[in-house]
Amino acid sequence: MGSDRARGRSTAVRWTAAIAATAMAAVLAGCGSGGGDAAGGGGTLTAYVYGDDAVKVQQAAVETFNKTSDVKVKLVSVPGAEYVNKLRTAMGSPNAPDIFFNWGGGSIKPYVDAGQLVDLTSAFASDPVLKDGFLSPVVTAGSLDGKVYGVPMRGMQPVILFYNKSLFAENGLQPPKTWDDLTEAVTVFKAKKITPFALGGTDAWTQLMWLEYLLDRIGGADVFRKIQNGDSSAWGDPAVLRAATMAKQLVDDGAFGKNFTSVSYSNGGAPALFAQGKAAMHLMGSWEYSTQLGKAPDFAAKDLGWTAFPTVTGGTGDAGNVVGNPTNYWSVNARTKHKDAALAFLKHMASQDYTKALVANGDIPTTADAGETLASSPNPGFAAFQYEMVQRAPDFTLSWDQALEADQATPMLTEINKLFAGRSTPEQFVAALKALT
């Protein structure tokens, strides 16, 4: 499941490029019809979902809903590799889904611009189930221009600093709370011929995580929020240059070793280095836990530790801020014949039964009362850490490659890769990003 989520990140980037060309065509094609529920009751809602191990949770929710609803939900599970193309084709036809899975942010912007999605802002404001049912940072993270278009429907995936507990204990170190602590750990582990950080440098999104947290800690969440809202000049904020400079310093100091540009995350290279004790730390999405549990269960049980990203001296960002993938969302086609029934189904995502099903599947739900169910998680300690980190977060920034549309996200990832590989300077990096429009 971890690898599916990792692939889902790049899928979201490709998605926006695909749907931008078909969003208006879908409107012209008349996808769906009418608004509100059809007279006389009955009917079907088609829901597209990304096909992976978690689908069984959504299928159970559909079965529960259909027992009491006149309008039935038909779940269409699309294999991950086919999701982009199948959704694009469907949304450009009269047979578009009524409800569909997405990543929020930039991944739905073309649909929003084309007027194809139901604005759920008023529903969240007036309906207690929606208003009080989910963690507000997660709802906000998937929104666009202050409007809500998605209901959280899977587990949260914050980026976490994982570390090897045995290696830290053997070297008299504590998990880094400050940047000075982190650089001290780099020095200590390098002296012991241990790579301080595993990094799958062939996958640019793994490098992106460093810049996301550095910019947040240095300049606060508002810097990227301006960029996400269309102000490309915000790439010129001094905090961006400082973040790029600090990332390059890590590279130059050997924090990622000498061969990280040939190490992959998607094929298991970086997690293996970490599990084998060849690297002491790994900055990665929360799915790293399930990855290690599946590939290196002894390491996951005995030596895998986790902590928040450290503070940066002089930074203005809140130390409690989080970056990553808040969750996945259901959005509703504005032309559905069964809007009320669709909203009724989406409200089920806030139910206790659905929350328990996610926990049993190893996910950390984004519902406001999920903390009560985490004791049944495969690792209650890790589950509670994630949930409390997000629950207390003043801000949860959606991963940049998902928050931005593909025409900006793709070249941004290219520039990040060049920075880490030493093919550009921090100044050149900033200049290239400012040129993105």
TrEMBL record:
InterPro entries: Bact_solute-bd_prot1, SBP
Residues annotated as signal peptide: 1-25
Pfam families: SBP_bac_1
Keyword field: Signal
Transmembrane segments: none
Oxidoreductase as UniProt keyword: no
Record-given protein name: Extracellular solute-binding protein
